[in-house]
Design goal:
The protein is mainly β. The chain folds into two domains: about 1-375, YVTN repeat-like/Quinoprotein amine dehydrogenase (Methylamine Dehydrogenase, Chain H, 7 Propeller), CATH 2.130.10; about 380-470, Immunoglobulin-like, CATH 2.60.40. The chain has no helices and 37 strands. The chain has strands at about 1-10, 15-25, 30-35, 45-50, 55-60, 70-75, 85-90, 95-105, 110-120, 125-135, 140-150, 155-160, 170-175, 180-185, 195-200, 205-210, 225-230, 235-245, 245-260, 265-270, 275-280, 285-290, 290-300, 310-315, 320-330, 335-340, 350-355, 365-370, 375-380, 380-385, 395, 400-405, 415-420, 425-435, 440-445, 450-460, 465-470. Strands 21, 22, 23, 24, 25 and 29 form a six-stranded antiparallel beta sheet that branches. A four-stranded antiparallel beta sheet has the order 1-2-3-4, with no helix packed on it. A four-stranded antiparallel beta sheet has the order 5-6-7-8, with no helix packed on it. Strand 18 (about 235-245) and strand 19 form a beta hairpin. The radius of gyration is 24 Å and the shape is elongated.
């Protein structure tokens, strides 16, 4: 059984609802699939089988009454590319069907694509940005934007299709602060096939679009924005690359962008000599101004790769400071995250696919991981302060963000180990360093307020320890 979860949302009770498909990869014989993960880790799944059809879910939105607005499409012909009915389900909290609507695609098109972005607008209606497939010859199609607006009961208020020369892909649909306009991060109107910003009025008319400036190598990266910094600037995550000599270095980038498409600042989350990718659909998850998660993975640039790889979590704040990171290496298969969502406990939930090839069968399994903010490894480094500290072993204390410990008398180049414990004796962090410097710089921004014990040890038994108070 091949499974894929493409999109998700968090409800008011902290449940994570994920939607996608389940079925056979060869031939794309799929049925729509939904999974609800509760805060305690238990979960509920349901597969929606429509007889003699293939179907898929594309998005889920939590309604004002707590029910779920799920979009998808289905094909009465049983051919995936001819999924020519927009499918809307209103589901209760136990994934029971409250209402169901279906709308045929415009006659100029053969079906809907597998991506739909939704948001509740200022009038309480569901704005939807998807794409529809248009045949350009018997064996090839292109996609145009398909915009819909519905009530929260699933009744359509309007639909608009936008013919474009190149393929259209919606990445993220957002309400603009202080306005009834919508901003769509996507790809369509420019002939360079580069991501762009499109701006829509409340009736889903495209007002104008902007390319990013200066030019960025985003390519076919799925861009994600989860935070408006003010009425004209926002944070965005994407895959990017730069050229070093004859080598191309792929990395995960976080950007401060304005609504003119100007790139104002960049935080490069780079792993040298690796091909790094953001989570496919949702790579940024905002919890609060000091807790923004970025998800990604190590790729091998192959369509179906089973080589074990690293999965990345990064923790940043709204000022684009890197506060921490954590890597996972399951080691048994190739893991590709599709999304990351913040949860009410200031943690996050990541989901994605596991690529295996048992006995030559192409199938993907689902993984779902929960991680708390305090599980992210602190960003810590050995540094040199000139002149070296003379009167303080550790400072400042109490501390808000960065804590320094003097390494006087210790040769950090021979290796040191840092351990941090809470007052119950629970180990919060352990890091090893081998670098030149006279102080250890520890970012404690992600620690909860309280008292902690630090212990720095060397291979020859020398120990520096003490307590600090995180405010």
């Amino acid at each position: 059984m091949d499974e894929l979860l493409a999109n998700g949302a968090v409800d008011t009770q902290g449940n994570v609802v994920l939607v996608g498909v389940q079925g056979e990869h060869i031939g794309h014989i799929y049925d729509a699939f939904i999974m609800k993960v509760r805060p305690d880790g238990s979960y509920l799944t349901r597969c929606f089988v429509k007889e003699d059809t293939v179907s898929f879910f594309t998005s889920v939105t939590v309604l004002d009454n707590g029910n779920y607005f799920v979009t998808g499409a289905y094909s009465p012909s049983g051919l995936f590319d001819y999924s020519n009915h927009l499918w809307i389900l209103i589901l209760g909290r136990e994934l029971d069907v409250i209402d169901e609507k279906a709308y045929p695609v415009d006659t100029a098109y053969i079906g809907f694509g597998p991506q739909m972005q939704t948001v509740i607008d200022n009038n309480g209606n569901i704005a939807m940005a998807g794409h529809a497939k248009r045949l350009i010859n018997p064996n090839q199609f292109r996609t145009d934007f398909a915009f819909y607006k519905c009530t929260q009961q699933g009744d359509t208020l309007l639909s608009r299709y936008y013919y474009t020369l190149m393929n259209s892909t919606p990445y993220h649909l957002r309400k603009m602060p202080g306005s009834d306009k919508l901003m769509l991060i996507g790809q369509s109107f420019n002939v360079y096939q580069q991501p762009e910003l499109s701006f829509l009025d409340s009736d889903m008319n495209v007002l104008y679009w902007r390319l990013f400036n200066p030019y960025q190598n985003f390519g076919f990266s799925f861009l994600r924005s989860d935070l408006w910094l003010n009425q004209s600037e926002f944070l965005m995550s994407a895959r990017n690359f730069w050229t070093i000599g004859n080598q191309i270095e792929h990395y995960i980038g976080v950007y401060r962008v304005d609504t003119l498409g100007q790139i104002l600042d960049e935080l490069a989350l780079d792993r040298p000599d690796t091909l790094d990718c953001v989570a496919w659909r949702k790579s940024m998850a905002y919890a609060n101004d000091s807790t923004i998660f970025i998800g990604g993975f190590q790729s091998y640039n192959a369509i179906w790769h089973t080589t074990p790889n690293l999965v990345y979590f990064y923790l940043i704040d709204r000022d684009m400071n890197l506060l921490g990171q954590k890597d996972f290496f399951p080691g048994d298969a190739h893991y590709q995250p599709w999304g990351i969502l913040s949860t009410p406990d200031n943690g996050c939930l990541m989901w994605g696919q596991i690529y295996r090839n048992p006995h030559g069968i192409l199938e993907r399994d689902i993984f779902v991981w929960k991680i708390l903010r305090e599980e992210i490894d602190l960003i810590t480094s050995v540094e040199t302060i000139d002149p070296p500290p003379k009167h303080s072993k550790a400072w400042p204390n109490p501390v808000n963000d960065v804590f320094f410990v003097s390494l006087d008398g210790i040769n950090a180049m021979q290796g040191i180990r840092l351990q941090i414990y809470d007052m119950k004796g629970v180990k919060i962090s352990e890091r090893h360093f081998k670098d030149n410097g006279n102080v250890l710089r520890i970012n404690v921004n992600n620690l909860a307020p309280g008292t902690y014990i630090y212990n720095i040890s060397t291979g020859n038994g020398k120990v520096i320890d003490g307590k600090f108070v995180k405010q």
